[in-house]
Design goal:
By secondary structure, this protein is an alpha+beta fold. It has a single domain (4-94), classed as GIY-YIG endonuclease (3-Layer(aba) Sandwich). It is 43% helix and 22% strand. It is built from five helices and three strands. It has a three-stranded antiparallel β-sheet with strand order 2-1-3, sandwiched between helices. The longest helix is centred in the last third of the chain and has 13 residues, at 58-70. The model has no long low-confidence stretch (mean pLDDT 96).
């Protein structure tokens, strides 16, 4: 079965955050890191994968993304720090 990911990128610890959805996390984060994606992440140098969740349902992933985007910044930071307190680049775990 296919997997879908909701992910958070950061420019630095407590920096600018970006939330997205993809079916290929490794490829998508690599695109962000290499600035192959025009827009927000390229403009604000948001390249560090600090959080992700996996699901097998695309609608669940899209719903979760919308939910997370509505959260206060402090909630997003708590979510990140609960699973990744040092704000490590989780991309390194994927490769």
């Amino acid at each position: 079965m296919k997997s879908y990911f909701v992910y958070i990128l950061a420019s630095q610890r407590n920096g600018t955050l970006y939330i997205g959805v993809t079916s290929n996390l490794l490829k998508r984060v690599k695109e962000h890191k290499l600035d192959l994606v025009e827009g927000f992440t390229k403009r604000y140098c948001v390249h560090t994968l600090v959080y992700y969740e996996q699901t097998e349902n695309v609608m669940s992933a899209l719903t979760r993304e919308k939910q997370m985007k509505k959260w206060d910044r402090s909630w997003k930071i708590r979510l990140i720090e609960k699973k990744n307190p040092k704000w490590r680049d989780l991309f390194l775990d994927l490769i």
